[in-house]
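Sequence, structure tokens quoted for completeness.
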Amino acid sequence: MRETSQRNQGERGTPKRYGPGVQLDIQTHVPPPPFPYYRNDKDWGKLRQPIREVVDDSDDSDEPSLDRVAIALSAPPLETAPPPEIERHQLTIVKKLGYRQEGRGAVVVTCHLDGDASRVLVAKIYDGLEYPVASYGYDFMYLADRDYSREAGAYRAFPQSFQGSIVPRYFGSWTFPVEEIGRGVRWVRMILVEHVDGQCVFDLILRAKGATGPPYKDIRKILEQPVDYALLPPESERLEVLAAVIENDIKLSWFAGVVHHDIAPRNVLYRREDSTLRVVIIDFNDVEIRTPRLVEKQRRGERLLPLSPIERYWAGSNFSEFAEWVPPDWDSDRDLGRLWLCERWWGSPCYRPPYDDFDDYAAEFLEKYGDRYSPDAWRKKLGFPNRRFG
């Protein structure tokens, strides 16, 4: 790391650490296997154990007297086998992205490599000193390793056809040294991905609440404000984006085995490319990575179709995470969202029909809107020989 980013103290969340103009000497790195998502996973804790003297089970604690630099030096990020060939670059930070307050997690910045300002990339930096001291029983170095392993693992799992399409294109995992003056050198991990020049759904919602930015001065106060729907994109465009989010989420799980667990407006970007709407899902540090559902189905000899958006999103058809993006009357009447699901995907040959018990689950809806949306009617339309799917 260049002199502009060297630091004498161990305080967290210092903007200068990864501010504009800071230069980092990066080199390729092989990430560790993704940390398990569930605590009852047989591999839980095998990669790294929390530092017990740091962890405060009350969560999200900060201890100002804690020497975090000393801990980071003594408990560095996980080491892995070196890559076959080491590639090196000088990275220059352009500006910070995202909504997190300083010291609350991974730092996301735009950047360029080797002085080529014409090619802008996004770097996501997993520096433990930028995380809370402890959260949910995990120390800051554990949290940084966990996020790095999962996000790099997700991008490595995505097929090439997804990259540069429904997720940003991935440009590898990296590491760089940080000199703590008079104390030693520690290493920090990061990934590089495509800079998607699109609109963030969360930004559009904040602006419809009267905010100017990003950056935003007091995001909590902004979120308390009502949405002026006249300032949002047209309803047809908003629902087109939501439909793409739903389909992309299913694709990630079905074809790549990546379950996002945090599909929300802040993690959705979109833009028009000619006449095509490109909707991109980002932020994969909280994912669960498992065998793709398609592979599971192949092993069992079942019909190779993913779960329908109708069945997958039926219970959450008011789309609470997108409550200020969908039509406002969906919040008070879930059947409106369910009707949209059915009108959009009923009978689609891309998805399997709902199971039999869906009839019971949706009994009141079917009574209200007729039986044209029943699983049996769908199977007949698609020519399935048996009532029970699979």
Notes: DSSP finds eleven helices and 13 strands in the chain. The two ends are 56 Å apart (CA to CA).
